[in-house]
Protein 1
Amino acid sequence: MAAPKVTKTRILMISDTHSTDYNPEEAKRPFRKPLPKADVLLHCGDLTMIGHLEEYKKAIEMMRNIDAELKLVIAGNHDISLDSDYFEREGMRMHRQKWDRSCSKKALEMWKGDHANSAGITYLEEGTYEFKLSNGAKFSIYASPYQPEFCNWAFPYERHEDRYNPSNSSNSVAWEARAVARNPIPDFPNVDIVVTHGPPFGRLDATISGEHVGCSHLLSAMRRAKPRLHCFGHIHEGWGAERVDWSKRSSAQSLVSGSTDVKVANRFPVDEDKMIADRCAYVDVSSDGAEPLRRGEETLMVNASIMDADYRPVNGPWLVDLDLPAV
């Protein structure tokens, strides 16, 4: 039986840019223009510090000049006016003297309308989408801006709530979780890329104190879906990339109880000087690379947070060559 057709695709990933710009004069930082050319740009949320309209405009202008055929963007917990329910409850408290009840409506119109479209940006709300590229790639992507409740910021859910697995899934039943998924992540092999704001539990999710704060239900969904790529941000200190190997199973229950019992290759090493010179950290897991990704057995996980824990834009974007399905 012939192997499915694939095409090598270059993906540039950034997250948690928090209204910063990429200053070309900051020669000692990798996040500076021009960023590397790619087929796809993924921004994993936290475009702003607190969701003001002028911050969104700055984020759009920052991405306007990135050379990518397809630019896909989700929100994060700091992008509070893009969560209309949250903004209705908390917008006045968060925006204080700058509060404008219409800010949420205007923000959504900005990201869904001509302002973002003119920069080549497609804003993704929670759900599954399909896209085609001029290189022949046709891929599915699941997007979600939500993460476990965090200091009363936007796009929250409680840790006992399973937002990513179907209500009839053994994952939710075994964990005694409350199933709340409106748009569950599809089963393998129906999604190629997953982009979320928050990380899965135990995977590039450790805070500066060493605590793992990712979502165990999201990790379970990743084991079920086995996407080629899962990129996220949110936890600045977790910046990095690793290959997660699903081929040796561990019980779902052990994952919930706090174990990170997943067979994982060593985190990809990063040469900081090269990253600064190249304006990115680069990984090749395509069929042209030394160790191609094993579809259905491995997922490349990337925390693409540009900021460090002190909100300094010192981390580089991730640039990945990956095989995607071909038309």
Protein 2
Amino acid sequence: MNKWVLSVLSLTLAGGLLAGCGKTETASSGAAASAPAASTGSGSTSLAGKKIALVTQLNIGTFSAQYIDGVKEQTEKLGGKLTVFNSENDLAKMSSNLDAAINQKFDGILIDHGTAEALESGVKKAVDKKIPVIAFDATLQVPGVTNLEQGDQKMAQQTLEQLGKDAGGKGNIVKIWVAGFAPMERRQIAYKSFMDTNKDLKEIAAFGAATNNTALDTQAQMEAILKKYPNKGDITAVWASWDEFAKGAARAIQQAGRTEIKVYGIDMSDEDLQMIQDPKSPWVASAAVDPKDIGRIQVRYLYQKLHGDQTQDTVVLDPVYVSRDALPKDKQVTTDQLAQFVKGWGGSEQGYTDWLKDLEKQAKK
């Protein structure tokens, strides 16, 4: 996909606040309101203390944790209160969580991944009740709902094009990918196009599954692939369509001493950066949008709807390509520092209106 859309299980990293009932509350200043407010044209007192629900399909890995941090940060800056409903990769539970958010009369709902089949009925119910909905990587086609996506085809193209250049236009590729997620399906389109036009690059193996231990499971599967192709030159590179896949593959390759194999991933977190900066790691590059920015932007568009503003059906976030060559060799950097070395990273003003900035100032008082 947010992290979108997979030790590895990072449910507790999502703000460290997961409750046993499958949701997390993060308090902020301001009293909670029980119903959506009509637009006043100023976006000030009518938007104070809003209750915001984030319904996630799964919270796995540091990307998801940083995405949720971004949602929490922006919500609190606007004086709201966030509750996270974690569905643990269970679409039926996600549908139930969405119904719970509607029945509990949240003022606005954010959706992280999921499928139209699981969510469309509940989303239509929310819209009918005048509860605004902003979705991230969920491919919902419900009038009035704004969908955010990361520019997934561009991310895939960026990594694949560099893979092809580094490989000299020929070699054997292992693809790690999983169906059933909107961002993955978009990334697959770019992959197929790339392979169709680069006939000297051969896919010799493909696997991938989103589990509660995705990185560890991927590592075990990659170890089996390495045993099947034990000789130098058998595998040129690994294209991983998700950072959890890249982590597992890189660890397997590094532990096997197969340093000639390079890994190209998608998505970025602090943990990912640490691996990419390690000169011993086969993971050399990734394309991504700052996960915190994704969360921040999603909240901004939700507040625009709460304000009564019109928002577009689809918002595409522009990714950047991050390679080891662009990073310092004498110190470890974090995603908060990455903009110093990679142009276009982080600090996006997308969806950031003047009245939202004013609302932030008022919420501080």
